[in-house]
Write a sequence for this structure.
């Protein structure tokens, strides 16, 4: 694979795809190291992994430069989109991983399980395969890697073939951490290599990318079967109500649609404005888009993937052919594309239905809140959305009606970077979660445990069976869940209940367990 910079088409290096046999041996090495790693206390694992922040901080400029060269990003996009969320996540898990992964006591009925204690525990899967896209190659590879590691797994990882030099950078950074040798393994290559990674038999797959690849990955993972978590694309809607702060909404829309040249899974791809403020907002957008600077170190950088241009051109041409008006022609200089605002658009256009993943912002009017919700939900995708209004309770009510995995009121895009919020989609946007407690739990499986301290020789549900035992158990069931108030249930089943006296009792240990299980749980 010859890697070319989207900035100026300069060659960045030549890479060979990792052969299938090597993937197998890398996976075996990661699995061996993972056994040892899983025995280390969570807090120690988290501290070792979080040491990465010091390396990221020391190498910030070099990292931003590499991300710019490989992905066409401007430095602020690299800093805000790749480094910031990753570093915040490391710090968050350093502080909270121990509590998130700690066993949780579960209340246990003394009538059903006298003198027993129950809990839910978490165990790492083993080796996670991380497969990532080109648009945020550092963050979307390293965030699942660090999460998998802190949860106690080994990792095999592959960046997009377009971001191979970022894969090298990640390997270099991980090598400086005090991790067991072999625990993390870099794989290089494209689609076929990704397929070979799954065929090699990791214990789970965490995939970020497009719908087509996500489907193919799930099909392959089903052959083992192993869990496949999918973080897919979006067609995010921004809903601006008539009482919104229009200047703030305009600035947010310009940023939300055009940062990283629109190649953002949570980029604003559909803007809906109330008809009373549509024209005023459009005027502000036209003013704002004209001021954006498209250059390597300004507001908007280059497309990170040359194949993206054909999609952007197709969506633009289809919209214009169907009557859309635009802030200007679709122009590019190399892979630097001038952002365009489009209006007079409708849902019959590709630009309102398919992921454009480029610097195009269509705006459409709605008549009332019901129509806004209907339009926003009229999409195959369901990743992120935002609602804009000065009436916060009304905006939140509206946001709750949206079919998305995440929403923000009066903010845009950056809710994905909140380290405590589990982020992910619904519908064609996938169902994986990363960040927050949910993201960490996703890299482990739950184990339920029940320990009895009973000294009785026999339990009520053990042999011998027979008609008499059936009647007793039937009475117990009716007492527990039957009709009427408890007194009535007790009186009509008194005889049956007496037969259970030999199994009951007051067990201080169980009372203590249950009291602790009932303590309010902390929200991380
Ligand atoms: P892609 O699906 O083409 O590729 C993603 C990765 O999967 C690459 O590493 C690629 O080599 C690999 N791959 C492709 N086909 C495969 C297969 N059949 N088996 C195994 N591996 C395979 O996506 P892309 O073009 O690199 O990225 C853009 C997409 O990613 C957009 O749709 C974007 O919305 C989505 N994305 C989603 C999120 C999120 O958090 N939900 C974040 C960023 C990007």
């Amino acid at each position: 694979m010859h890697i070319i910079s989207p900035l100026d088409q300069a060659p960045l290096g030549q890479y060979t795809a990792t052969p299938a046999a090597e993937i197998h041996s890398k996976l075996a090495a990661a699995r061996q190291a993972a056994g040892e790693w899983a025995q280390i206390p969570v807090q120690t694992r988290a501290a070792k992994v979080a040491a990465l922040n010091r390396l990221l901080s020391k190498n910030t400029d070099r990292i931003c430069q590499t991300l710019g060269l490989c992905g066409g990003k401007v430095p602020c996009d690299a800093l805000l989109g790749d480094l910031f969320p990753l570093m915040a996540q490391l710090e968050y898990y350093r502080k909270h991983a121990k509590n998130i992964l700690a066993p949780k006591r579960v209340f246990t009925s003394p009538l059903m399980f006298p003198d027993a204690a129950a809990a839910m525990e978490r165990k790492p899967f083993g080796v996670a395969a991380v497969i990532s896209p080109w648009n945020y190659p550092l963050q979307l590879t390293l965030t699942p890697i660090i999460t998998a590691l802190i949860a106690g797994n080994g990792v095999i990882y592959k960046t997009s073939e377009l971001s191979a030099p970022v894969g090298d950078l990640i390997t270099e950074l991980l090598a400086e951490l005090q991790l067991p040798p072999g625990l993390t393994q870099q794989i290089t290559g494209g689609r076929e290599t990704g397929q070979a990674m799954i065929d090699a038999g990791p214990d789970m797959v965490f995939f970020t990318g497009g719908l087509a690849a996500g489907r193919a990955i799930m099909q392959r993972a089903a052959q083992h079967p192993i869990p496949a978590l999918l973080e897919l694309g979006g067609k995010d809607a921004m809903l601006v109500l008539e009482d919104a702060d229009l200047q703030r909404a305009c600035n947010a829309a310009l940023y939300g649609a055009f940062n990283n040249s629109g190649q953002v899974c949570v980029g604003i791809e559909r803007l809906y404005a109330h008809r009373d403020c549509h024209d005023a907002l459009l005027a502000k957008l036209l003013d704002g888009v004209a001021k954006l600077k498209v250059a390597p170190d300004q507001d908007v950088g280059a497309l990170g993937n040359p194949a993206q241009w054909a999609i952007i051109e197709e969506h633009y041409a289809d919209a214009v052919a169907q009557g859309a008006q635009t802030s200007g022609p679709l122009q590019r200089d190399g892979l630097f594309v001038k952002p365009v605002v489009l209006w007079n658009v409708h849902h019959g256009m590709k630009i309102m239905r398919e992921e454009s993943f480029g610097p195009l912002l269509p705006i459409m009017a709605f008549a009332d809140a019901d129509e806004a919700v209907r339009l926003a939900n009229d999409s195959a995708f369901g990743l992120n959305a935002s609602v804009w209004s000065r009436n916060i309770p009304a905006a939140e009510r509206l946001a709750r009606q949206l079919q998305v995995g995440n929403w923000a009121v009066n903010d845009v895009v950056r809710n994905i970077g909140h380290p405590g919020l589990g982020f992910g989609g619904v519908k064609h946007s996938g169902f994986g979660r990363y960040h927050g407690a949910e993201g960490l739990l996703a890299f482990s499986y739950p184990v339920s445990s029940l320990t009895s301290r009973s000294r009785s020789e026999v339990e009520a549900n053990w042999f011998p069976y027979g008609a008499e035992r059936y009647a007793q158990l039937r009475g117990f069931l009716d007492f527990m869940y039957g009709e009427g108030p408890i007194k009535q249930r007790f009186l009509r089943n008194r005889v049956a209940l007496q037969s259970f006296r030999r199994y009951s009792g007051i067990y201080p240990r169980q009372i203590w367990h249950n009291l602790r299980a009932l303590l309010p749980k902390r929200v991380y």
Observations:
- The pocket of nicotinamide-adenine-dinucleotide is lined by residues 131-136, 140, 158, 160-161, 190-191, 194-195, 208-210, 213, 216-217, 231-234, 265, 355, 357, 383, 425 (CB under 6 Å).
- Residues 127 and 202 are 5 Å apart (CA to CA).
